[in-house]
Amino acid sequence: MTTFGERLTKLRESKNLSQAKLAKMAGVPQSTIAQIETGRNKSTKRIIELAEALDTTPNYLLNGVKDLSVVPVSSEIGSYSDKNISNDIGAYVKIPYYDISLSAGIGNATWIVRDTSDRLLFRESWLQRRGLDESSLKAMYVRGESMEPLLYDMDTILLDINDLEIVDGSVYAIIFKNRLYIKELRNSEDGIAIISYHRDYETMHVTQETYDQFKVLGKMVWRGG
């Protein structure tokens, strides 16, 4: 995987920008660009400005994670540590990453904030246009290959935990038989189909007999990889 400095250099050179020109566009000293590209500086408070100057996202520059959704534009999303967020980002909201702890009983799913300072950042305007409430959004990592090629191992998804109504073809975080899944759901005559995208994984079915072992935790509203 490439480093922050390598990604910055590649994007800068692809746009035929000198370090001095990029520094001027982002409002940082040229020495800052040089230090990032040589690996001496791992972060900057002007990451948003750098990303916008390079037509990318803060999340990609810092973490190598590309926005895979079609809706957010580059200036509307980012991801970086709290310690690197300047006080003037204004209209951004920070969404923590979570793990889910399962215990006996279908209702016992606990959201646990990951022990990291990383946050996904979205502009408030992006949330508002989509009717999303910051307090109901949770970011998490995808594990496994069952949803390839839509989602790959360690891709990031954003869930709306208040959107629990099943819409055919949408992707949800669910519990089924005391296991956590990220799957496409579809209503069927016999119940609910739990669909994987990878051809090696068979569709599971929630029937009347197993419905009490099924729970929707939230709908995927954004994905990044």
UniProtKB/TrEMBL annotation:
<dbReference type="InterPro" id="IPR039418">
    <property type="entry name" value="LexA-like"/>
</dbReference>
<dbReference type="InterPro" id="IPR001387">
    <property type="entry name" value="Cro/C1-type_HTH"/>
</dbReference>
<keyword id="KW-0805">Transcription regulation</keyword>
<feature type="domain" description="HTH cro/C1-type">
    <location>
        <begin position="8"/>
        <end position="61"/>
    </location>
</feature>
<dbReference type="InterPro" id="IPR036286">
    <property type="entry name" value="LexA/Signal_pep-like_sf"/>
</dbReference>
<dbReference type="GO" id="GO:0003677">
    <property type="term" value="F:DNA binding"/>
</dbReference>
<protein>
    <recommendedName>
        <fullName>HTH cro/C1-type domain-containing protein</fullName>
    </recommendedName>
</protein>
<dbReference type="InterPro" id="IPR015927">
    <property type="entry name" value="Peptidase_S24_S26A/B/C"/>
</dbReference>
<dbReference type="Pfam" id="PF00717">
    <property type="entry name" value="Peptidase_S24"/>
</dbReference>
<dbReference type="InterPro" id="IPR010982">
    <property type="entry name" value="Lambda_DNA-bd_dom_sf"/>
</dbReference>
<keyword id="KW-0804">Transcription</keyword>
<dbReference type="Pfam" id="PF01381">
    <property type="entry name" value="HTH_3"/>
</dbReference>
<keyword id="KW-0238">DNA-binding</keyword>
